TrEMBL record:
One of its GO terms (molecular function) is ATP binding. It comes from Halalkalibacter alkalisediminis. Keywords: ATP-binding, Nucleotide-binding, Transport. It holds the Pfam family ABC_tran. The keyword Nucleotide-binding applies. This is ABC transporter ATP-binding protein.
Amino acid sequence: MSTLTLSNVSMGYVTKRETTLALDSISLSIEDGEFVSILGPSGCGKTTLLSLIGGLLSPISGQITLGDQEIKKSNAAIGYMLQQDYLFPWRTIEDNLMLGLKIRRTYSESTRRDALNWLQQLGLGDKKDLYPNQLSGGMRQRVALVRMLATNPSLMLLDEPFSALDYQTKLKLEDLVFHTLKSERKTAILVTHDIGEAIAMSDRVVLLSPRPGRIHRVFEIPKDMANILPFDARQHQHFNEQFQIIWKEMERLAAAT
């Protein structure tokens, strides 16, 4: 059974001047443990789609289910990692990590140990008593990843989490996130503008059309590329071929608008 199912999901916004359809009739199934990226031109509704899946918005029509449960509001089984880390500067790294556990009322000595163990595994065990401004951007994003993992969600939503980082740090963090999520068999959805990132990290890439966003095409990434670290995938013999296929399809979409 699919972990996540979207059935004819549409979303619109109403202002005093106009009604805008942001997403139109999105239907998609994402399997347990799958990593899917969402690509598309600016304004096509990528982040809106992620917000609907996360229960932060409600669709005007259609249904979204996680397992056998319909998503109607924020769900403890869903974790978020954003472009900004949103760490509270007045709290230590450990205090930032525990905040989600306390809000969800799952904080205990056991869950605290688990969170600090994640911090240790990601190379930041000695930073727990520091404050966010004492860490680099890449370190802060690793903390954001631990904060998400600490609540043990089954579905991870990643909204351009690497876009604010320098290229070398971005590549390292891609590998770290990919390895961590795959080893834990987490289901993940990544929103990105970066075609190479989408190919390197994903099992499938979903391309949305310009507004209103519709599923224009779904690209299956070859398994021998999808099962290796993103850095290695970028060196794969078929990587450039896959890049050109998606690039040309995005160019055709842009030319048609």
